[in-house]
C-alpha cells in the first residue's frame, strides 16, 4: 500500500475514529501527511513520530490498548452488530495494522522519492511493530465481548475525583481473601452477594460495620480482587464526594463491567447534606442507580451518624423522629455485616495462619506469648494487630 493511499484511508476511519486523537496514531498520520509538504516539514514530523514511539514503549500494545479502551458504533451494538459495522471495523483494523507494519525505512524511502534530499538518509530508523491480535470486525467484536471495552477497561480499581471523574489506579492493593484469615461467616455473606451481583441477579448494598482494625476495608478490596477477572471493578469514593453519584451513574450506565462503589469509613454529622443525598441515591430518589452497580460501605458506627445525648432529648414524638432519622440510612443497606474484635482464640488463630503463610518459624507457645504481649501494647487484639505483629517478627528475624 502506497503511503499516500494509507494516509487517505487513515483519515477515513469510521468505527475506530476515536483513535485518530491518540498521540501515536496522530503522529503516524501527521508524518504521512507531511509527505505532501516540504522536506523540512517531513523531517520535523518524522522526528516527532520517533519521539512518540519511544515514549509509548511497546507500540503494538499501545495501539491495542487504544482499541480496547475505545467506545464506538461496534461497542454500542455489540450484542448484534450489523454487517456494515463489522465491515467498517475490518477496514479500520486493516489501516491500523498497515501503520504498525511500517518501519523507518519505508518512510525515508518515500521521502527520498519525493524530495530528493540526501540529508533525509541520516534520519533515525525504527522497526515495524507487531500487528494487532485481530484483523476483522467479527474478531474485534469477540474480543470486546470477552475482555470488555471503554474507559473502565483500563484497570480493576479506580479513585473518584472531586470533579466527578474517575481515575484508574495503576497499582491497586493486591490483597486477596487468603491473606485475611478468620471472619469466615462474614466473608461468605459478602461473597454470596457479590456472586449474585456478577450473575446479574438481585444483590444488596452492604454495610460492614464494627471495631477498628477488624479487616472491613481489606475484605471489600479482597473480594473485588477475587473477581476482577470476571469484570468486577471497584471505585473508591470519599464520603465528601457523594454528591458526584449522578456523574458516576452516567459514566457506568452503559459499561459492560460491574462495579462496587466503595465508601470507606462512612460517618456523618446530623447536619451533613451528604447523609440525605446518599439515602436518595441508594433508595428513594427519582433517578435509580444502574443495575451494574452496588455500594459497599464500611463504618465504625452502626447507624453512620454521630449522636449526642442532646439528640435524644425532647418529647416522645421528637425522640422517635430523631431515632428514625438516625437509622434511616443504615436501614437502606440490604445487608449489614458486623466485624467485632476477635476473642483470644480467634486472634491467635489469625496469628497462626499469618505466620504459616509468611514462613515464620516459631514454637507455637512462644508465638502465642509474643502475640499476646504485642496485642497488649497495641491496644487490643485485632486482625490488624496480628498482621503488624507478624511484620515485626519477620523484620527481627531478617535482622538476625
From TrEMBL:
CDD domains: AAA
The protein's name in its UniProt record: ATP-binding protein
N-terminal signal peptide: none
Molecular function, one GO term: ATP binding
Domain AAA+ ATPase: 202-320
InterPro entries per the UniProt record, alphabetical: AAA+_ATPase (IPR003593), DUF815 (IPR008533), P-loop_NTPase (IPR027417)
Chain segments annotated as transmembrane: none
Pfam family, one: DUF815
Source lineage: Bacteria, Bacillati, Bacillota, Clostridia, Eubacteriales
Keywords: ATP-binding, Nucleotide-binding
Amino acid at each position: 500500500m502506497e503511503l499516500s493511499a494509507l494516509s487517505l484511508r487513515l483519515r477515513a476511519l469510521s468505527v475506530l475514529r476515536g483513535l485518530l486523537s491518540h498521540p501515536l496514531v496522530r503522529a503516524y498520520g501527521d508524518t504521512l501527511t507531511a509527505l505532501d509538504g516540504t522536506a523540512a516539514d517531513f523531517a520535523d514530523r518524522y522526528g516527532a513520530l520517533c519521539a512518540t514511539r519511544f515514549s509509548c514503549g511497546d507500540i503494538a500494545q499501545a495501539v491495542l490498548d487504544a482499541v480496547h479502551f475505545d467506545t464506538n458504533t461496534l461497542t454500542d451494538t455489540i450484542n448484534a452488530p450489523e454487517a456494515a459495522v463489522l465491515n467498517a471495523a475490518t477496514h479500520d483494523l486493516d489501516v491500523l495494522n498497515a501503520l504498525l507494519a511500517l518501519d523507518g525505512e519505508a518512510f525515508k524511502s518515500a521521502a527520498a522519492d519525493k524530495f530528493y534530499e540526501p540529508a533525509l538518509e541520516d534520519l533515525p530508523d525504527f522497526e515495524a511493530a507487531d500487528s494487532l491480535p485481530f484483523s476483522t470486525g467479527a474478531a474485534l467484536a469477540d474480543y470486546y465481548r470477552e475482555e470488555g471495552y471503554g474507559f473502565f477497561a483500563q484497570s480493576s480499581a479506580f479513585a473518584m475525583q472531586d470533579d466527578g471523574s474517575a481515575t484508574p489506579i495503576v497499582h491497586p492493593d493486591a490483597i486477596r481473601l487468603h491473606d485475611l484469615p478468620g471472619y469466615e461467616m462474614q466473608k461468605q455473606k459478602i461473597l454470596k452477594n457479590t456472586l449474585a451481583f456478577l450473575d446479574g441477579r438481585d444483590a444488596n448494598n452492604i454495610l460492614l460495620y464494627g471495631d477498628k482494625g477488624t479487616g472491613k476495608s481489606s475484605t471489600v478490596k479482597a473480594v473485588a480482587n477475587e473477581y476482577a477477572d470476571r469484570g468486577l471493578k471497584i471505585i473508591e469514593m470519599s464520603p465528601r464526594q457523594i454528591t458526584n453519584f449522578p456523574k458516576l451513574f452516567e459514566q457506568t450506565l452503559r459499561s459492560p463491567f460491574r462495579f462496587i462503589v466503595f465508601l470507606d469509613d462512612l460517618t456523618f454529622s446530623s447536619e451533613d447534606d451528604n447523609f440525605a443525598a446518599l439515602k436518595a441515591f441508594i433508595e428513594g430518589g427519582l433517578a435509580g442507580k444502574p443495575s451494574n452497580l452496588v455500594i459497599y460501605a464500611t463504618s465504625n458506627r452502626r447507624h453512620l451518624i454521630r449522636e449526642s445525648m442532646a439528640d435524644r432529648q425532647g418529647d416522645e414524638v421528637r425522640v422517635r423522629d430523631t431515632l428514625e432519622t438516625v437509622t434511616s440510612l443504615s436501614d437502606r443497606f440490604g445487608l449489614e455485616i458486623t466485624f467485632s474484635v476477635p476473642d483470644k482464640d480467634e486472634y491467635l488463630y489469625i496469628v497462626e495462619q499469618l505466620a504459616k503463610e509468611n514462613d515464620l518459624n516459631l514454637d507455637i507457645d512462644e508465638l502465642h506469648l509474643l502475640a499476646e504481649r504485642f496485642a497488649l501494647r497495641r491496644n487490643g487484639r485485632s486482625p490488624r494487630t496480628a498482621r503488624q505483629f507478624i511484620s515485626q517478627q519477620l523484620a527481627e528475624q531478617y535482622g538476625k
